[in-house]
Amino acid sequence: MKSVLIIDAPPMLREFLVEKLTAENVSVEIADGQRDALPKFLSILPDLVIINVEHSVEDIIEFLEKKQADPNGKKIPVIMAGPLIDHSEVSDLVQYGVIKYFTRPIKFDLFFESIGRVLHSAFSIDSTPCVLDMHLNHEIIFIEIAMGLNREKITLLKYKLSELIENNNLSLPKVILMMTDLSLSYVDGLNLELLLTNITADRRILRRNIKILTLDPFVSDFIEGHPIYDGVQVVSDISSVLNSLVEGDATSSVQDVISDQVLAASDDSDQGTMAIRFFSDTGKVNSDEELTAGHLKVAIVDTDLAVIKYLKDATETIGDVSIFLSGKEFIAKVKPGQFDVAITGMYMPEVTGLDILRFLVEHHINLPVIVYSNVVQKEVIMQALRLGSSSYLIKPQPTEVIVKKALEVVNANR
Q: What is the reported pLDDT for 182?
């Protein structure tokens, strides 16, 4: 049996890794701190070491040096996950047997692909297309699922929910599960059951505080037919539940609530140690090493000169910026490999942001695109994601959010 030593992983990440690895018949040993790690490493000499770096790579250097000094341990590979570091720091880790460095939040399709290569094992990863996003406003957790039910992401959701509740000290969290894009049948019953089981796994989430927004009669019948989901409410109109859950002015319109509370939130699914959205969601070849800021080629596409100036000032800190005053101008000039990332508006004359996304797909131009728009209609956002948009940011966003997202999508495309 293959064996893996996991060092300094936070509880939620550790539990997920143990669940996934043991399911693949891999023996797992846990170590907390360097003093605990070295004796366990030398006693079991695992096939692979997985290290979570909390703050700095320097925190684990002593262990790595002692590992390399041991004749039996120096050839054992290491996979690390931690904060963003420079390429020079990644290169320095190679001498200690580090073969991969993943920047948190970890994208697990690539993560387990790397583990599988080390252990010579093909880990079973559900490839069902699925967009699963989660964010928090006040004590309401919004979960949106589109395209399909992916068991890997559903499993991750259980740990992400607990992590989100812990990090925000939520005493009585409320959950709105939005599945209006899904049409399910009895063959999806096991996956739907897994989804609901994982949402209710945290005892702080009471069933009466779970609302499911769906147009699918199968979901309603499924909930009503299971006594264990008693209290979970299924609705077809979000207005019927939002006013009772969202704090604020009782006179505010439901559309304002949807815009302010649901769509304008930052993407909390990508915060913490684990990411629910995988690199493979873009359908592009990726790398797990981070870029050093300052060498990117950025395209900005918009007709609003104020927006262009704002985006240009933000992204000049990470590279060279090219401006396109219309979508038509952009698709007439863009070539494969010309840019690392594009940031585009949505509604522009003649050629819209959706048209740009279609053009890139049809002409096989592998370019990550961030849509930066004040368009908040859910159907437009979901259509952009389906067409390959790497991210959809609702205006306005702080410059640091735009820069961080640009680096993330570029790294996901490498």
A: 83
Indicate the DSSP class of residue 52. Answer: E
Half-sphere exposure for 87 (CA within 13 Å, toward CB):
7
Q: Name the DSSP class of 64.
A: H
Using CA atoms, how far residue 222 sits from 150, 154, 176, 229, 384, in Å, is 18, 18, 17, 9, 30
pLDDT score, position 244: 56
Phi, psi of 98 (to 5 degrees): -80, 120
3-class secondary-structure state, position 186: helix
Closest listed residue to residue 125, CA positions, set 136, 114, 134: 114
Residue 414, CB-side half-sphere exposure with 13 Å CA sphere? 14
Q: How far is CA 64 from its chain centroid?
A: 29
Q: Which residue has the tokens 């008693």?
A: 230
Amino acid at 316: E
- Classify burial at 172, counting beta carbons within 10 Å of its beta carbon; exposed 0-12, middle 13-18, buried 19 or more: exposed
Question: β-strand 78-82 against 48-52: which pairing, if any?
Answer: parallel
Residue 255 in tokens:
């559309």
Q: pTM for the complete prediction?
A: 0.58
φ and ψ of 150, to 5 deg: -105, 120
Residue 246: what pLDDT?
54
The predicted pLDDT at position 288 comes to: 38
For the chain, residues with pLDDT lower than 70 are 138, 238-275, 277-295, 411-414
What confidence tens digit (pLDDT) does each residue in 104-136 have? 878 787 888 889 888 887 777 777 888 888 888
